[in-house]
Amino acid sequence: MENIALIDSFSEFKDNKLIDRVTLMAILEDVFRNALKKKYGSDDNFDIIINPDKGDMEIWRNRTVVEDGEVEDPNSEISLSEARKIEPDFEVGEEVSEEVKLIDLGRRAILALRQNLISKIHEHDNTNLYKQFKDLIGDIYTAEVHHVRPKMIVLMDDEGNEIVLPKDKQIPNDYFKKGDNVRGIIESVELKGNKPQIVMSRTSPDFLEKLFEQEIPEVFDGLINVKKVVRIPGEKAKVAVDSYDDRIDPVGACVGMKGSRIHGIVRELGNENIDVINYTTNPQLYITRALSPARVSSVKIDEQTKKAEVFLKIDEVSKAIGKGGHNIRLASMLTGYDIDVIREGVEEVDDVELREFSDEIENWVIEEFEKIGLDTARSVLGQDVEDLIRRTDLEEETILDVFRILKEELED
């Protein structure tokens, strides 16, 4: 196999990989020099001439002519009689340049050289790919579903790069099939061996923030600032926004007329419920807004413990807590305060904590009531049975049984 043939056999890498012809030739020279060192002990006296335009190369070994019988280093010296076989008028002290063919390296060396070249090219590609996607961390990226696996979805972008979307980075109600386009943010890039693993996420709060930048011009232009985003992926999210221009209503601009602007974002996130609120440095007001849609009567905060007591009318409590406790949990995450709900007008002596009935009511049933903000006997009895069936995972028979137990206790 001639030198030129070896180069041509690898020129396909230039077309399919993130590598140019000149870089390919530089890698080729490095690989050949390593092969020469193994074969001859040194590559210092070798010239490797590469022509990237034509895609060819030559290897020349330079040796000094010495008297017959005085050759000490066969790699750098050649006897006078051997030199004159190459050219009859050589004299002692002159330099002989002789072309080295691949066949001179031996078959095993050629196979090793080929493998080393492939490895070097892949290493170069992986390094470039790692750097490319490191710069894209936190940005929205789109790729096509290539394989659907139990623990992840394997995506492929237009350049043929593999991206993984793990199960825990997918929104719970996401459903994708082969050929679908998927949007998410590049969350991390790690080297697994020599190969970069690119991880996409659709559950990160940063994904929602980037969607606001893409879909809402005022956010993209910097007229509206997204201060903080908190999410329970697929369920609910809260976004605090602010504007330095008093003429701009940040919430109205983000939501749009009849929700027109935010609708596309909600649809992208699998109908995740998004509350957009005005950011403020006033902690009481911020907590009040964060608990929307509940109407808060008053807020008492302790800055040292970062705790807040929120006072609400009894019919506002379930709104503040929200389905599955999502609303109050997100409000705490958004404001940074541990929020306790205090019901106005409830006499503690005239009520009993649900946990007091743990001998008669199973814990999982009590937890279902607590999820919607009902943790006392009277708070449960003040609800409509039909409404409780709709808001909890409890059967009518179970709810009626709880009502009976609570009523008997209060009557006694």
Automatic annotation (TrEMBL):
Occurrences of domain Transcription factor NusA N-terminal (ranges): 6-125
Transcription regulation in keyword set: yes
Residue span(s) of domain NusA-like second KH: 284-344
Subcellular location: Cytoplasm
Alphabetically ordered keywords of this record: Cytoplasm, RNA-binding, Transcription, Transcription antitermination, Transcription regulation, Transcription termination
Annotated Transcription factor NusA first KH domain residues: 202-279
CDD domains for this protein: KH-II_NusA_rpt1, KH-II_NusA_rpt2
A molecular-function term among this protein's GO annotations: DNA-binding transcription factor activity
A cellular component annotation (GO) from this entry: cytosol
Origin superkingdom: Bacteria
InterPro entries: KH_dom-like_a/b, KH_NusA_2nd, KH_sf_prok-type, NA-bd_OB-fold, NusA_N_sf, TF_NusA, TF_NusA_bacterial, TF_NusA_KH_1st
Any GO BP: transcription antitermination
SUPFAM superfamilies: Nucleic acid-binding proteins (SSF50249), Prokaryotic type KH domain (KH-domain type II) (SSF54814), Transcription factor NusA, N-terminal domain (SSF69705)
A Pfam family it matches: KH_NusA_2nd
HAMAP family, alphabetized: NusA_B
Subunit record text: Monomer. Binds directly to the core enzyme of the DNA-dependent RNA polymerase and to nascent RNA.
Annotated function: Participates in both transcription termination and antitermination.
Family from the record: Belongs to the NusA family.
The protein's name in its UniProt record: Transcription termination/antitermination protein NusA
Source organism per UniProt: Flavobacterium sediminis
Gene that this polypeptide is encoded by: nusA
